[in-house]
Amino acid sequence: MGGEIEKILSMLEEGKISADEAERLIRAVKSSNGAEPFDKRFIEVVDRVGRGISSAVLGAIKSVHFEGKEEIGKPERIKIALGTGDLYIGASKDDMAHLDIDGVHSLRREKGRVSLAVGSGNASIMLPDRVECDVKIGRGDFELEDVECNLELKLGSGDASVAPKGFDTLEAKLGNGDFEMKLPENIECEIHIETGKDCGVELPKSITNIEEKVIRRSLGEQKKVIDARIGENPKKKVKIYLGNGDITIKQGEQ
What we know:
By secondary structure, this protein is α/β, with parallel strands linked by helices. It is 20% helix and 49% strand. Among the domains are: 2-60, no CATH class; 178-254, no CATH class.
């Protein structure tokens, strides 16, 4: 069995299969061999992916910047790849974006776009409103607050706390960790959630419609799917995918 698991993990690290596919394969191996609980193996998978992301980020660093603060102008879109460490995104006090990073990093700017790669270390980024954010973290915690932005987050292992001032779309994919979100008080949105069957999910009291079901896939594992709505005709969209952990979504002062 160990060889089968290692092969699956290697395929995941090499990008030959997705995290969902790796999860299905590992569950199938476990069920057929009476193996140890999946949650423990899942954590190992995520840790390996985190190390893989960290190595890839380090390998991508060509033009090296050392720790310190830097102003990066007015980007329309920012892509952030962090191997190991914590990332904070908050609201800028002016209309410029500002970085504060305590690790070696690479920074590229081109036509309104900024790409930041950090191998290992913590980073704080202050953004003006209406910046598209694409964030990938191998292992570490993520926090966003008080800024209006669309967010696409991929987090291998760690917790995420998201409290945007506003957004049109927000998508988060987490392997192992807790996800917490605070919605703006008057926002109407659709919420789509996919989690492991035993993950805890807490939704805001403002929910006006909710559908929940458990889906059994061909290899025997189960996942929980929740579709909920706040408001009668919501235009905003939230999508959350979580392998192992809990999801908490609140709104306003709740």
